[in-house]
Amino acid sequence: KPPPDMPPSPHKSHFLQNSDNERVKVTVRSRPLTKAEESREDVIPVVFVNPDKSTVTVRRKGSFVDYTEFKFDAVLGASATQADVYAVAAQPIVLDVLEGYNGTIMAYGQTGAGKTYTLADVVINDAIQSRVEGIIPRSAANIFEYASNDKNHEYHISMSYIQIYMETIQDLLNPETTNLQIREAEDGGIFIAGVHENAHSSRSHAIVIITVEKKTFSLLDSTNSSEGRRISKGILVGKLFLVDLAGSERLKKSGSEGLRAVEAMSVNMSLTALGKCISARADPSITHVPFRDSKLTRLLQESLGGNTKTSLIINIAPCCDHIQETLSSLKFGIRAMKVGSRAILNFE
Ligand code: ADP
């Protein structure tokens, strides 16, 4: 027997407020030096996280004169734990998804900067390496814990795991299904038709989608789409996109011949499209947002284009060999920080 009608729980925004509501939240994570880097004398750290935990300084050759400072929502250094990253860059989005919003958490950066570690890593207490859970397992655990403690609602939770490789969508849970199609549902939502390779390569975007359907037993009806929530027949539906983007390194780093070059061009094209979509949202004079430029942006259309919550993690390596890639990743993050400036202008 369903419980008596009850109003939906009031939506609490955990870090996004007023004019900040539409802005992409950008967190930078600088990983520790690897053992191999530590053992090399020519490796100089060039990335310094400042005590305010929101600015990062990149010093060319460790110089105190030639440096650039960048400001973000949060900057986490080598000592930040997986739990710290989850609390800052993921949990607020997961809680929103549980309230019926769509949310996206993406990791951007060159190969080796720590994207997969941040999103996925799980090897624990292994004698040699004791890595701990990243954002994906923590999000799933958080969702199941929340759902099992909520006795007033019925939950249906499902997951897909896909990869976009050279503009082809593959279902990583079912290797036999390839070249899936992106379709638009009647209510404007985006879904993938036909969704199951397996190993995720640095030349592909890997995307986990967790869908949470929550039966509210409330007076909400299908015409009510307040605050950007999609409500269908009394069911709140929130989708969480967890995106491990392909390595953002430039062509000459990834190999400039044959398949490598073609792969790199495809990755660059989709990351450029992603950047354009983010910039378009930041610039009120741009009315056309080029979602259709790539499969990645088409799939993330809902989460980049509307009243949804997006958290972008910029993963960087702290040492001198990677300074150009680090600067380029930080600049990508700065562009994303501007998303929502239109809302700020209106608010003022
Ligand atoms: P990417 O996914 O960006 O290519 P990885 O996540 O594979 O990079 O990280 C490269 C290496 O650095 C891996 O060996 C990983 O375990 C290690 N690493 C990355 N971030 C951290 C971190 N915050 N703490 C400890 N080791 C890390």
TrEMBL record:
<dbReference type="GO" id="GO:0007018">
    <property type="term" value="P:microtubule-based movement"/>
</dbReference>
<feature type="domain" description="Kinesin motor">
    <location>
        <begin position="23"/>
        <end position="339"/>
    </location>
</feature>
<dbReference type="GO" id="GO:0003777">
    <property type="term" value="F:microtubule motor activity"/>
</dbReference>
<keyword id="KW-0175">Coiled coil</keyword>
<feature type="compositionally biased region" description="Pro residues">
    <location>
        <begin position="1"/>
        <end position="10"/>
    </location>
</feature>
<keyword id="KW-0067">ATP-binding</keyword>
<dbReference type="GO" id="GO:0005874">
    <property type="term" value="C:microtubule"/>
</dbReference>
<feature type="binding site">
    <location>
        <begin position="109"/>
        <end position="116"/>
    </location>
    <ligand>
        <name>ATP</name>
    </ligand>
</feature>
<keyword id="KW-0505">Motor protein</keyword>
<keyword id="KW-0150">Chloroplast</keyword>
<dbReference type="GO" id="GO:0005524">
    <property type="term" value="F:ATP binding"/>
</dbReference>
<keyword id="KW-0493">Microtubule</keyword>
<protein>
    <recommendedName>
        <fullName>Kinesin-like protein</fullName>
    </recommendedName>
</protein>
<keyword id="KW-0547">Nucleotide-binding</keyword>
<keyword id="KW-0934">Plastid</keyword>
<dbReference type="GO" id="GO:0008017">
    <property type="term" value="F:microtubule binding"/>
</dbReference>
<comment type="similarity">
    <text>Belongs to the TRAFAC class myosin-kinesin ATPase superfamily. Kinesin family.</text>
</comment>
